Fold this protein.
Amino acid sequence: MSKVRVRFAPSPTGGLHLGGVRTALYNYLFAKKNNGDFVLRIEDTDQTRYVEGAEQYIIDCLNWCGISSDEGPQNPGEYGPYRQSERKNIYRDYAEQLVKSGHAYYAFDTPEEIESLRDKLKAEGKYNVQYNYQNRTEMRNSLSLPEEETQALLKINFPHVIRIKMPRNESVHFKDMIRGDIEMQTDGVDDKVLMKADGMPTYHLAVVVDDYLMEITHSFRGEEWLPSAPVHVLLWKYFGWESQMPHWAHLPLILKPDGNGKLSKRDGERLGFPVFAMEWNDPVKGKVPGFKELGFLPEAFINLLALLGWNDGTEQEIFSLEEMVEKFSIERIHSHGAKFDFEKAKWFNHEWIKKSNVERLRPGVKKIFEENHIAINDENKLDKIIELIKERCTLLTDFLQQGSFFFLAPSEIDTSVVLPKWNENKNQFFVELIRAYSLINSWDINDIEHTFKELAAAARLKPGELMLPFRVMLVGGKFGPGVFDIASLLGKEETIKRIEHTLSLMK
Ligand code: GLU
């Protein structure tokens, strides 16, 4: 068997939707599982939709996810170029070959003529307004015009496209690795343009030619491409390459959490979560948020994406990339769409934060602190804090909320939590505590706790009733890890300072 080669073939038109990342991921998993190559091909033949910076952004997203390609525009292998715009000259000959064999034709219709065909069909009450076998002979193309006229038009380079001549009443069969045998009728498909007037191929031609030339063996793509499959299968056949046609897998859609249909960027905006892997800075619309910036670990992000459409047949939900490579199989990809659930996505991230060691979390947490103007001079202290609060953090950004008080005294103390049960005895207890703490030599957690409890007993107060005010003094509110852990990390001086400060507010 020839070497497995798969490709992720995005169009550089904007942010990378999580469905796109999942397609890339399944490609990657399949390639790695089978010791194959994962190719990145940039499908930029639609110049009107091209967006500056989008290619680099896609590559950055794949790198962040840890699923970089083996071959691509920035790391070319032997099958380049990897941008379709740079392969422009390849396609025309292939399209001409189809014209010669009678499977395609030149069409010289002007945009106005196409428009009037649409109007005419609409006026006839047809809702299926397509350029197809029913009307192609009435249009201006090499099938309807005398040969000399066609040649004359070509000679003067009259603007034209090349269209596939879709056969009438044929059924096209192929085997989808997820959906099994698929049969589709050609009648519903129009005579798709293969070469555009600007000399660029369309997606339909380019995808077939490139999959062939790049020796792609398996082709994973979104379900939305299924209606185009008959065109592609016919092209493989017309070129005489049928035996090399890749095995297809049309991946189920990622659905919106409510209602039906594909999860869109608008759903994310409406429901308050990102749909892009990383923040996309759109040249026109500005910044669109991403999972990375929200505080997702890439391990969690790819894990949750993998599980939106696949499982290993057990109840297991947490998988590392290596484990996924090991366990991945096409048979276990579902054929139905999976609803995206943001709460579940956050659950994955929480699990991954808990599972990750301090070394893994440190750079990201440090960055978030520094971006919020909290300088980290003591990494050792940061490590202890991470270990202490990671259980409480669902997103990396939560480390800021859960941990900034270790570095900065709280700007506000929520005394309202404490005031209702505050009395002179408690006040006296904390005055004593300051004195006792200032005498402690070793600022050890056991001593801190022991001293606290001993004083409470002497004052005949329940430690439980004193712990909440103590916490509020140290962190500003009713949250955070164990209060003695906090005091131990804050250090003696800072702990005393914070008790004093709150006592002054309580007067
Ligand atoms: N360029 C197509 C896209 O943007 C790729 C479809 C395919 O993989 O065949 O999704």
About this structure: The mean pLDDT is 95. The first helix runs from residue 18 to 33. The domain at 415-505 is CATH 1.10.10.350 (Arc Repressor Mutant, subunit A). The chain is about 45% helix and 10% strand.
